[in-house]
Amino acid sequence: MNGLEHVTVLIVEDTLQIRSLLISVMRQVGVGNILRASDGMEATELMREMRHNPIRVGASEIDIIISDWVMSPVDGGTLLRWVRRHKD
Fold it and tell me: Which of 67, 52, 51, 54 is nearest to 81 (CA)?
């Protein structure tokens, strides 16, 4: 046990191959719960859903977000601002 089995990571990446690579790396280092989104819009929807239905999402909180910066329709900068300003 490396202490990461209780960590939840959200990977936000629009390129499938890079997203798969990041998920694989997270699994190899022992991250216990990995959530994924293909862009910032999907990530914000996932976080909103998590607030109302954490069982459906598979997590009640996110410890780390790893995000691409250049995505469409919602990029990494906009996602970062949303996370910082969101009350939850």
Answer: 67
